[in-house]
């Protein structure tokens, strides 16, 4: 009797467990999603400050480039020069122009570096259903499209324009070349180290991949036949979108003025094709 009672009790347990199994599975899945959302939030908080700082620094430089296009310091001749010191209190001083060029390369590359660090941390997680995270992902996708998409020039004679792309894999490689490890901590190399590497006669991934950014930026042409002018404006506006998403302070007066002057990402650039250029994902 004791054995039957035990088997009967076990049978009851199995039936109860069978009925409760869907609830346990649902609870388990909900708990896993909660843990994932918590982990994603921790990653976001970890990289939010360096991302917004590098985004602001890039936005200020993009604004200067767009305002002064075709920008006298972004030339091959300036890059090849090696002035030893500043000699004139002028924006035409050779040392000043080369500093502006190299610091522009650094701001582009450092921003891509922080993006790559952030992307690598997210690799092993499923996409979040959080609306704010989705907005951030879209803003970053728009920035990548501004560099990489070849079909956003809608002009009828698009094939007669000058244009330069940085492909998505290259954007990641540029970011990777900027990452350094110090023990268990990974960060982006500083400006001084960056300058030493690109000026060195030696070979490094940072120097090699900086050539891709140089090719994108140097020797901009005036007029309406260099599509890089449009790309730079698009990058500026999408970086401003990104800043507004991750920085509770929003845009300062200077960047807000840039937004007003260059227009919205949805309505700008209509004069470069038969219809407005869409913000691509």
Helix content: 55-70%
Radius of gyration: 25 Å
Largest sheet: 2 strands, antiparallel
The number of E-state strands comes to 2
User: Any low-confidence stretches, pLDDT <50, length ≥5?
Assistant: 4-14, 270-281
Order of helices and strands: HHHHHEEHHHH
Count of runs of 4 or more consecutive helical residues:
9
The global form is globular
Features:
mainly alpha; two-stranded antiparallel ribbon; 9 helices; disordered C terminus; single chain
Give an overview of the whole structure:
- It contains nine helices and two strands, in the order H-H-H-H-H-E-E-H-H-H-H.
- With 281 residues, the chain is an all-alpha fold.
- The chain has one domain.
Q: What does the secondary structure layout of this molecule look like, with pairings?
A:
Blueprint: H1 2-68, H2 76-80, H3 94-122, H4 131-148, H5 168-177, E1 179-182, E2 185-188, H6 191-199, H7 205-217, H8 228-246, H9 253-262
Antiparallel strand pairs: 1-2
Helix pairs in contact: 1-3, 1-8, 3-5, 4-8, 5-7, 6-7
């Amino acid at each position: 009797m004791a054995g039957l009672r035990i088997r009967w009790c076990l049978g009851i347990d199995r039936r109860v467990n069978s009925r409760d199994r869907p609830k346990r599975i649902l609870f388990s899945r909900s708990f896993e999603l909660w843990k994932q959302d918590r982990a994603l939030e921790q990653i976001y908080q970890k990289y939010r400050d360096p991302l917004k700082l590098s985004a602001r620094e890039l936005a200020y430089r993009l604004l200067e480039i767009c305002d002064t296009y075709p920008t006298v310091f972004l030339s091959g001749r300036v890059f090849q020069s090696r002035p030893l010191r500043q000699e004139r209190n002028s924006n035409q001083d050779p040392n000043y122009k080369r500093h502006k060029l190299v610091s522009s390369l650094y701001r582009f590359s450092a921003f891509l570096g922080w993006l790559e660090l952030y992307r690598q941390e997210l690799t092993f997680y499923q996409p979040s259903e959080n609306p704010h995270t989705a907005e951030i992902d879209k803003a970053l996708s728009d920035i990548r499209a501004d560099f990489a998409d070849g079909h956003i020039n809608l002009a009828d004679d698009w094939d007669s324009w000058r244009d330069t792309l940085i492909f998505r894999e290259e954007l990641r490689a540029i970011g990777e070349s900027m990452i350094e490890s110090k023990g268990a901590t990974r960060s982006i190399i500083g400006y001084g180290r960056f300058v030493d590497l690109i000026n060195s006669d030696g070979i490094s991934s940072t120097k090699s991949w900086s050539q891709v950014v140089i090719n994108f930026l140097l020797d901009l042409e005036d007029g309406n036949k260099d599509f890089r002018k449009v790309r730079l404006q698009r990058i500026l506006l999408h970086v401003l979108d990104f800043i507004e998403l991750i920085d509770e302070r929003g845009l300062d007066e200077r960047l807000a003025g840039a937004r007003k002057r260059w227009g919205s990402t949805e309505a700008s650039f209509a004069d470069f094709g038969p219809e407005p250029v869409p913000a691509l994902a």
